[in-house]
Amino acid sequence: MKFRTLVIIILSLLFCRLNTIIDYDRVLVLDAGQIVEFDRPYALLKSKGVFYDMVKKTGPTMFTHLYQIAKKTHEKKEEAAKLLALSDTDSSSLNDDDFKNSNEKLSL
């Protein structure tokens, strides 16, 4: 009976921790000490593998909640990446004269 209680406690802690890691950049999923999945939480949920099964076992309400957090986080990071790429494109069109002119204006 002691072993069964320990397993339930460990599973409870694991499911509670899913809420903590659902917005991480990447998640590494191990099974029997072997890497079975490694990706963004939203991608892992969409692939319906081991991570998906773990989240699904939290129940329908918690699954929906965790899925929505993962999706929202994914969308925010995609938008940030697009903005960063756009800003890199804008700054790459600058040349040395642009910096020289801006420095001359600052010294006035």
Query: Measured on Cα atoms, how large is the radius of gyration?
Result: 23 Å
Give the fraction of residues assigned to helices.
over 70%
Question: What's the overall average pLDDT, rounded?
Answer: 77
Strand order of the largest sheet: 1-2
Largest sheet descriptor = 2 strands, antiparallel
Identify the overall geometry: globular
Which percent range describes the beta-strand content?
5-15%
Distance between the termini: 81 Å
Order of helices and strands: HEEHHHH
Count the E strands.
2
Q: Tell me the structural class.
A: mainly alpha
Instruction: Indicate the low-confidence ranges by residue numbers.
Output: 1-12, 102-108
Tally of helical runs: 5
Number of domains: 1
Overall description:
The protein is mostly helical and 108 residues long. The protein has one domain (2-91). Helix content is 73%, strand content 10%. It has helices at residues 2-21, 41-47, 50-56, 60-92, 96-107, and strands spanning 27-31, 34-39. A two-stranded antiparallel ribbon has the order 1-2. The radius of gyration is 23 Å and the shape is globular.
